# Entry
Amino acid sequence: MKPLQKPANPLFSSGPCAKRPGWTIKNLENAPLGRSHRAKIGKSRLKEAIDRTASILGLPEDYRVGIVPGSDTGAVEMALWSMLGARGVDMLAWESFGAGWITDITKQLKLDNVRSLTADYGDLPDLSRVDPANDVVFTWNGTTSGVKVPNADWISDRRAGLTICDATSAAFAMDLPWDKLDVTTFSWQKVLGGEAAHGVIILSPRAVERLEDYTPPWPLPKIFRLTKGGKLIEGIFSGATINTPSMLCVEDYLDALGWAESIGGLKGMIAKSEDNLTVLRDWVAGADWVEFLANDPATLSNTSVCFKIVTPWFADLEPSDQAAAAKRIATLLDEEGAAFDIGSYRDAPPGLRIWAGSTIEESDLMALLPWLDWAYAQVKASHTK
# Structure
């Protein structure tokens, strides 16, 4: 039977993600709108966002944080175009975004000394093959596969190359080892549920050294430039952004950071997300039609949790029919107002994807689970008459 209770908040999208509990538009009424972002008030808000980001994440004092345009994509592209080419590059990919960075480096930058270490959805590539003499580009958490690296043991403490980490669905939800990360990027639209369009780039001293010692052979558009005259543009990391930011989005980010601090900072956010994952683990353990897409439990994401349908009738369908059946499950839940945006990513295997980050309430996940079983039963019945 159709469940009676729906989630109080049916927003389970993996990006932009649900706003923090208790959010209202009134939280943004102090945003300095109609003012220059270069005025004292604008710079102070941007500097506050930078400082609180560093504090909550527990960054080393000599790491720099900058707010940049273009969301996480812009932050990653800035790093790739500004720093790569000095040495060989190992590219790691096990889902669509990592694969996209490979395309950019091989087809756009046209670098020659590139190794692509890849794996299918659900698995990780062989991390032991990463050469510490090379730069390495990777996602910490595969947002479209629900597979994360379990730790950073595979990153050498004596590495010569830089580590460039796309951490957009990991930052503020997973314990990132900053001593192993030279460039880290994220967008606050993910784990913190902030408004989109802005990215954050975090640089280690080794990354700054690369920027100041190496000039790439290709032209850099202004929006990617982190140095001037061979020196880091320090203003980017103190509130003087490259282009005009939305002070409304910055105010929303500050609100999200304040909420994060109120629930115990990074540890509180990680714990809340892990509790949400436990709800989903328990459900999968008792379900006979669904499994996690991640094949190794140690690599299971606690934010973008991806599922595959494993029953025989589904396996017997043609791939296009599998995709249609999985989409129908998500559509039914959308039509009922029980869950929005939980279909798998377009390049991923047919299935479902549910955001379990800390802005999601455990009670809403609990209310969602009967709806998942109901929607699956409806689709199964239509295929097995």
